[in-house]
């Protein structure tokens, strides 16, 4: 298929891919061996910078640059933290690595720890991910027994421990500083930045925190080189990414594609077999619940950071949610807004109040009683919530679906006021 | 007055010095306590804090923040149906209504025999395999009426459902269940049994 490039999902279809034996059979831990023998830590950071690897969690920050911010001279421990708190609605891409290739993630954590000269890595997995917790913990055990973790790894003199930590149910712990607070045993409240985690992160010490897929991309960069990685994808969006497609497509699931080589429409029509039941596509969320919704006319956009940004949305966590022509856009906005209202940590007034007020108004549109002027009230609230008025980006994310649905499907909001919900209060037509 | 068994007390004490800072032990310790008791009432929060030798506020202030912690007893099996967008597009609302009809309870309620609590959950990361529900730690995906029937029938007899939870393969089965009386363990039990082994066990004081 056009654009397919399997790097972090290369092993996941093999039987027992999650065991050390199978991982090693297919080249596992060779990048670690190579790095420990041949590459100096600072050169490894440079290599990841040269590869152009950008964060796969949501914000897309260059990973090598993040690592480069970690001061190596101050007398404090340095930590590597893997963000496996995957909980952005629509996102299920990290789960495939955690469940089907946990050793790849461990190798990625080790390479990262080696690069920033850290001896402690934590993998923070959302508590609801029972099987991922089981698989990653077992893989960590195996790695210790085989000498890939612990003291003097592979005789190199490099020490590194990995600890798996389970969350307890909170979307906001996927925000990197919220995660660090949670890992410290507190409520997951995002921290004011600066200082950034690279300088003062876990327990106040310099910390690199990266997403599962980001860390899992590092072994391939070490194995095949920065130039190879840079030659895939497009400028400023190098390498492949895992697209997690859900909703009204014939074949939902995981697709690892080179960035920029496939358009959103091609992903839906060619890779995912189009829309179920021969219906037409109506709306697509390209990068998880926090990213503005695109209309059926806006789908010829290549799937890379810059193209999606130019289209007025974002790549986010590459969670593609596809809605067919029967979907009520007011209801879709309501479902997502109720999510953000539930998950707001409550620290900042615009987010704590704004998400709930938006949900209340949207419920009135769906169930009756909304006034026409409230369409603009929704936009007003959005403009008061976003644009740096809050500690973290949750509020900006919450605005995405509301603002875009009001702006692009205003006629539906008007119809709701005049005639009530055309779907009679349901989200869409669905047979179950 | 100790409610926790000596074994759980020992596990929690073990956690105490496993992290660079003791407070990091609070979340795993609460999972351990909930695994045994099913929920975290005030006296349990005090007991866990005492075992970790941290102020009680450190357990009480987090318990309400995280949705996996229950302050009140729930049914033996929590059925958590994902209600977020991807699942709703595929019929999650009908799944909830079907289970409501079958069990004779509304969402949020527990059946009279104390066996099932029906809940809606926010996105659980199974969006491409919708609709889904989580029972304890297990994900049941691509739900159909037949699947829901067979899961509930088995659980009502305290048997492991014949439908394999997503992702579990032959030699990596979903385990023998919780405490003998329960066919499916709670999510906290799964965390206790599979995570506990390596929690900071390598002494990561830097």
Strand order in the sheet with the most strands of chain B? 2-1-3-4
Q: What's the total helix number of chain B?
A: 8
- What percent of the residues of chain B sit in helical stretches (DSSP H or I)? 25-40%
Strand content of chain A: 5-15%
Text of the CATH class of the largest domain in chain B: Alpha Beta
The global form of chain A is globular
- What proportion strand of chain B? 5-15%
Distance between the termini of chain B: 37 Å
Could you please describe the fold and organization of this structure?
The complex is a heterodimer of chains A (432) and B (206). Chain A has 432 residues and is α/β, with parallel strands linked by helices. Helix content of chain A is 42%, strand content 12%. Chain A has 17 helices and eleven strands. In chain A, the strands form three sheets. Chain A has a five-stranded mixed sheet, with helices on one face. A four-stranded parallel sheet of chain A has the order 3-2-1-4, sandwiched between helices. Chain A has a two-stranded antiparallel ribbon with strand order 5-6. In chain A, a hairpin with a 2-residue loop joins strand 5 (233-234) and strand 6. The longest helix of chain A is centred in the last third of the chain and has 19 residues, at 349-367. Chain A is globular, with a radius of gyration of 22 Å. The two termini of chain A are 31 Å apart. Chain B is α+β, with helices and mostly antiparallel strands and 206 residues long. Chain B has two domains: 6-71, Arc Repressor Mutant, subunit A (Orthogonal Bundle), CATH 1.10.10; 77-196, Glutaredoxin (3-Layer(aba) Sandwich), CATH 3.40.30.10. Chain B is 38% helix and 9% strand. Chain B is built from eight helices and four strands; from the N terminus they run H-H-H-H-E-H-H-E-E-E-H-H. Chain B has helices at residues 6-15, 26-37, 42-52, 57-63, 85-89, 92-103, 145-156, 187-195, and strands at 77-82, 116-121, 133-135, 138-140. In chain B, strands 2-1-3-4 form a four-stranded mixed sheet, covered by helices on one side. In chain B, a hairpin with a 2-residue loop joins strand 3 and strand 4 (138-140). The longest helix of chain B has 12 residues, at 26-37. At the A-B interface, helix 7, strand 3, strand 7, strand 11 and helix 13 of A face helix 2, helix 4, helix 5, helix 6 and helix 8 of B.
């Amino acid at each position: 298929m056009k654009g397919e490039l399997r790097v972090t999902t290369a092993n996941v279809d093999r039987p027992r891919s999650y065991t050390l034996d199978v991982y090693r059979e297919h080249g596992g831990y060779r990048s670690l061996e190579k790095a420990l023998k041949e590459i100096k830590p600072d050169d490894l950071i440079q290599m990841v910078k040269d590869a152009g690897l950008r964060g796969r969690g949501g914000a897309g920050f260059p990973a090598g640059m993040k690592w480069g911010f970690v001061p190596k001279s101050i007398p404090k421990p340095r930590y590597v933290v893997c963000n496996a708190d995957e909980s952005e609605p629509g996102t299920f891409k990290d789960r495939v690595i955690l469940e089907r290739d946990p050793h790849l993630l461990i190798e990625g954590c080790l390479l990262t720890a080696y690069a920033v000269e850290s001896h402690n890595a934590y993998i923070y997995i959302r508590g609801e991910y029972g099987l991922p917790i089981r698989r990653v913990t077992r893989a960590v055990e195996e790695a210790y027994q085989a000498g890939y973790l612990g003291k003097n790894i592979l005789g190199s003199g490099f020490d590194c421990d990995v600890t798996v930590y389970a969350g307890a149910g909170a979307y906001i712990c996927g925000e990197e500083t919220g995660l660090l607070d949670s890992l410290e045993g507190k409520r997951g409240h995002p921290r004011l930045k600066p200082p950034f985690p690279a300088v003062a992160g876990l327990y106040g010490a310099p910390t690199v925190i990266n997403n599962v897929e980001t860390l899992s991309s590092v072994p391939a960069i070490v194995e095949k080189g920065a130039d190879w990685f840079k030659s895939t994808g497009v400028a400023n969006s190098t390498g492949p990414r895992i697209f997690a497609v859900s909703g009204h497509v014939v074949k939902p699931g995981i697709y690892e594609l080179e960035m920029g080589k496939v358009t959103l429409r091609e992903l839906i029509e060619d890779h995912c077999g189009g829309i179920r039941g021969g219906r037409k596509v109506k709306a697509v969320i390209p990068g998880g619940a926090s990213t503005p919704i695109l209309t059926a006319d806006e789908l010829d956009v290549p799937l890379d950071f810059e193209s999606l940004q130019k289209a007025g949305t974002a790549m986010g966590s590459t969670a593609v949610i596809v809605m067919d022509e029967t979907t009520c856009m007011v209801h879709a906005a309501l479902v997502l807004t109720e999510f953000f209202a539930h998950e707001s940590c409550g620290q900042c007034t615009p987010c704590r109040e704004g998400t709930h007020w938006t949900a209340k108004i949207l419920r009135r549109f769906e169930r009756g009683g909304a006034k026409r002027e409230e369409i603009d009230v929704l936009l007003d609230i959005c403009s008061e919530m976003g644009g740096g008025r809050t500690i973290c980006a949750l509020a900006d994310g919450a605005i995405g679906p509301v603002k875009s649905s009001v702006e692009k499907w205003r006629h539906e909001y008007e119809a709701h006021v005049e005639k009530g919900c055309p779907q009679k209060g349901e989200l869409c037509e669905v047979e179950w | 007055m100790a409610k926790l068994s000596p074994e759980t007390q020992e596990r929690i004490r073990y956690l105490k010095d496993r992290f660079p800072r003791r407070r990091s032990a609070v979340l795993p310790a609460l999972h351990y306590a909930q695994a045994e008791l099913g929920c975290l009432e005030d006296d349990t929060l005090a007991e866990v804090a005492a075992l970790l030798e941290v102020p009680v506020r450190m357990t009480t202030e987090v318990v309400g923040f995280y949705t996996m912690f229950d302050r009140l007893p729930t049914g033996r099996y929590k059925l958590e149906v994902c209600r977020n967008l991807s699942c709703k597009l595929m019929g999650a609302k009908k799944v909830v209504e079907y289970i409501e009809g079958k069990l004779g309870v509304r969402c949020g309620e527990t059946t009279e025999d104390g066996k099932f609590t029906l809940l809606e959950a926010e996105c659980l990361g199974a969006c491409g395999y919708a609709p889904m529900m989580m029972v304890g730690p297990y994900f049941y995906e691509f739900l159909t009426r037949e699947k829901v029937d067979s899961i509930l029938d088995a659980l009502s007899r305290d048997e492991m459902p014949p439908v394999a939870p997503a992702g579990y393969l032959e030699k990596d089965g979903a385990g023998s269940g919780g405490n003998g009386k329960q066919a499916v363990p709670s999510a906290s039990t799964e965390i206790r049994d599979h995570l506990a082994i390596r929690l900071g066990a390598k002494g990561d004081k830097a």
